[in-house]
């Protein structure tokens, strides 16, 4: 790196202020004052601009929402292609880590490459049937056990299932134990690697990343089709394993569905590959209660049952539902109608997923909405709760073109006049409740 490319503190501060000036022309004042103004440029080596944000959450926001526009503005100011590296206040920067792992330097227990969100903990993670193996495989890497630890650990599943929560909980626990950790998204791994290549500092990048005790890579699907990055990741995994370290990877899809190079697939297949699945009904109920306790709030039993009955497509969406319910409770506005209105968007996702389903699927969704079994929905019990569900089912089936005799047969052989009355009442209920209209849209 020539001396002109590595800026001193004063030049770097002036350069960052110039970047902010350009960003003020492109972004709204909220983004500037909330996320960018508190940030500080730590270093610029001619290729990588290391920016210190005030928290791990700020790092995540800048990375997801503003990375492209910041890199574009910085490239204009510094006159070269810029890759942004983000660290939270108080964390070790890339250059600090570089110095610390230089030959003869003592190892430090606080070293971490990448931003680690330590508010995500194992204690706050709800282990359930669909995620138990993933949870156990991760926690085994940082808890003493008699059996040998398995690595790599590969987690896969739809977005919002809690994979990233596990990764950051693991990274934070390992860092607190004095281990050197690299916790990066696949995109960040790629950007750092390519930035090092452009700056002709690939050896330094490899010295840093290949000497960690724990390598964590999230969103593996990002490197599909990026052969050079995949080769570098394979070499990094081999180097980490050879010094006794461990690897954990997460992806939205099974790694064998990503079209990865054979060498990378082979390395991943040597460990544990486990899917992270959604909660079942009882687990959703436990999650709702867990979140309410953690937030030091309370929800009535009927609201907990209603939240648990929503087959949310992810843990993240279910968390949003719980937060909405607790906000209504604090505002003393929590009732069935208000809660259903706040859940309408979630149910749209649910119904969209099931839109291709048939009669049984429709009945199952209605049963879940009323928190009853499908057998009770089509059964003979006269409980008002079951009758309400049957009324909605009769109206929904009629709207799909089912004849009254056919609906009567589905509902345990009731006569046509009873079914007609039920359908009429069901249509009125659907009109009154937004959530039902969205639920039956599919």
3D architecture notes:
This protein has four domains: 80 residues, 2-Layer Sandwich (GMP Synthetase, Chain A, domain 3); 170 residues, P-loop containing nucleotide triphosphate hydrolases (Rossmann fold, 3-Layer(aba) Sandwich); 62 residues, Orthogonal Bundle (Helicase, Ruva Protein, domain 3), CATH 1.10.8; 88 residues, DnaA protein, C-terminal DNA-binding domain (Chromosomal Replication Initiator Protein Dnaa, Chain: A), CATH 1.10.1750.10. It has 442 residues and is of the alpha/beta class. α9 links the parallel β7 and β8. The strands form two sheets. A six-stranded parallel beta sheet has the order 4-6-7-8-5-9, sandwiched between helices. A three-stranded mixed beta sheet has the order 1-2-3. The protein is 54% helix and 10% strand. The chain contains 21 helices and nine strands.
List the helices and strands and how they pair.
Elements: H1 9-26, H2 29-36, E1 40-44, E2 48-53, H3 56-78, E3 83-88, H4 94-100, E4 112-113, H5 132-139, E5 153-156, H6 163-176, E6 181-185, H7 186-198, H8 202-209, E7 214-218, H9 227-242, E8 246-251, H10 262-269, E9 272-275, H11 281-294, H12 301-309, H13 315-330, H14 336-342, H15 344-353, H16 359-369, H17 374-377, H18 384-399, H19 404-410, H20 416-432, H21 434-439
Parallel strand pairs: 2-3, 4-6, 5-8, 5-9, 6-7, 7-8
Antiparallel strand pairs: 1-2
């Amino acid at each position: 790196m020539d001396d002109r490319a590595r800026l001193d503190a004063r030049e770097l501060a002036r350069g960052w202020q110039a970047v902010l000036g350009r960003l003020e022309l492109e972004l709204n004042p909220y983004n500037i004052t909330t996320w960018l103004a508190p940030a500080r440029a730590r270093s610029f080596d001619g290729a990588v601009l290391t920016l210190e944000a005030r928290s791990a959450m700020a790092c995540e926001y800048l990375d997801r929402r503003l990375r492209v526009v910041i890199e574009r503005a910085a490239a204009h100011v510094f006159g070269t292609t810029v890759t942004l590296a983000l660290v939270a206040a108080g964390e070790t920067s890339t250059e600090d880590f570089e110095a610390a792992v230089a030959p003869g330097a003592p190892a430090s227990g606080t070293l971490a490459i990448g931003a680690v969100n330590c508010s995500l903990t194992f204690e706050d993670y709800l282990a359930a049937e669909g995620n138990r193996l993933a949870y156990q495989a991760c926690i085994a890497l940082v808890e003493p056990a008699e059996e040998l630890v398995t690595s790599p650990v590969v987690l896969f599943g739809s977005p919002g299932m809690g994979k990233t929560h596990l990764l950051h909980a693991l990274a934070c626990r390992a860092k607190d134990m004095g281990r050197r950790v690299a916790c990066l998204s696949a995109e960040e791994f790629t950007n750092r690697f390519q930035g090092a290549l452009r700056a002709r500092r690939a050896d330094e990048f490899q010295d840093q990343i290949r000497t960690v005790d724990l390598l964590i890579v999230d969103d593996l699907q990002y490197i599909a089709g990026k052969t050079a990055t995949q080769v570098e990741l394979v070499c990094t995994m081999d180097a980490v394993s050879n010094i006794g370290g461990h690897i954990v990877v997460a992806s939205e899809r099974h790694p064998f569905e990503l079209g990865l190079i054979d060498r990378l697939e082979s390395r991943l297949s040597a460990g544990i590959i486990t899917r992270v699945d959604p909660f079942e009904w009882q687990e959703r109920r436990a999650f709702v209660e867990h979140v309410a306790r953690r937030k030091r709030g309370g929800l009535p039993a009927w609201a907990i049952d209603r939240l648990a009955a929503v087959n949310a497509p992810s843990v993240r969406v279910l968390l949003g539902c719980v937060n909405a319910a607790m906000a209504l409770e604090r505002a003393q506005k929590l009732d069935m109608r208000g809660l259903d209105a706040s859940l309408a968007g979630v149910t749209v996702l649910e119904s969209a997923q099931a839109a291709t389903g048939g009669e049984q699927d429709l009945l199952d969704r209605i049963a879940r909405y009323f928190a009853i079994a499908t057998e009770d929905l089509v059964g003979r019990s006269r409980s008002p709760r079951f009758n309400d569900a049957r009324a909605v089912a009769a109206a929904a089936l009629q709207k799909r073109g089912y004849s009254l005799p056919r609906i009567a047969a589905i509902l345990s052989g009731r006569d046509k006049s009873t079914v007609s009355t039920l359908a009429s009442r069901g249509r009125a209920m659907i009109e009154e409740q937004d959530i039902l209209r969205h639920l039956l849209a599919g």
